């Protein structure tokens, strides 16, 4: 079994959990933010919907320049409804899965670079980028959304077992 294929069960589980959190966001809370210095729920949700798309960008390209000198900077999507955010997320997950399933181990060991204005910010093996910047990064921002749901008195879904909203005592 190739490495990418071995990652599929975890990818599916984490993306399913992420979708459960995204589904809970009411449209009227997309502009809410917990603090002046924080991003809105809508920004975090759009960012989460975008992250699975990074599988393609990482595996099929050698780098990403987030602010190319002669081009447009990378932009987080800005869908304005939960339904549109979920559609983007589902599309990115659906595209990412076959890429992971089909990637050769040697490709995952190739370097991938994040650039800004042509300057290298980091270079890591593609496998590390997928693990860190897709899997772990999704979990990180999903946790933000769970806190945002809680402080807005919205039910938090269970992810690795029942949440306080789903637990029975």
- The count of β-strands is 3
Count up the helices: 6
Q: Which spans have pLDDT < 50 for at least 5 consecutive residues? A: none
Shape: globular
Question: What strand line-up does the widest sheet have?
Answer: 1-2-3
The CATH class is Mainly Alpha
- Which fold does the CATH topology refer to? Four Helix Bundle (Hemerythrin (Met), subunit A)
Strand composition percent: 5-15%
Architecture overview:
The chain has helices spanning 3-23, 41-50, 54-59, 82-102, 105-108, 126-151; strands spanning 63-65, 111-116, 119-125. The chain is mainly alpha-helical and 169 residues long. A three-stranded mixed sheet has the order 1-2-3. Helix 1 (3-23) packs parallel to helix 6 (126-151) and helix 2 runs antiparallel to helix 6 (126-151). The longest helix is centred in the last third of the chain and has 26 residues, at 126-151. It is globular. The protein starts with a helix and ends in an 18-residue tail after the last helix.
């Amino acid at each position: 079994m190739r490495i990418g294929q071995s990652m599929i069960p975890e990818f599916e589980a984490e993306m399913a959990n992420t979708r459960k959190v995204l589904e809970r966001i009411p449209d009227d809370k997309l502009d809410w933010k917990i603090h002046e210095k924080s991003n809105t729920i809508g920004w975090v949700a759009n960012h989460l919907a975008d992250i699975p798309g990074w599988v393609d960008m990482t595996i099929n390209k050698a780098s990403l320049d987030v602010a190319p000198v002669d081009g447009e900077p990378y932009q987080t999507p800005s869908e304005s409804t939960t339904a549109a955010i979920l559609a983007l997320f589902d599309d990115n997950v659906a595209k990412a899965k076959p890429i992971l399933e089909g990637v050769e181990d040697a490709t995952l060991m190739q370097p991938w670079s994040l650039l800004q204005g042509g300057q290298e910010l980091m270079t890591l093996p593609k496998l590390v980028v997928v693990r860190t910047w897709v899997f772990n990064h999704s979990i990180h921002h999903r946790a933000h959304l769970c806190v945002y749901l809680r402080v807005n008195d919205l039910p938090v879904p269970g992810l690795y077992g029942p949440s306080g909203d789903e637990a029975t005592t």
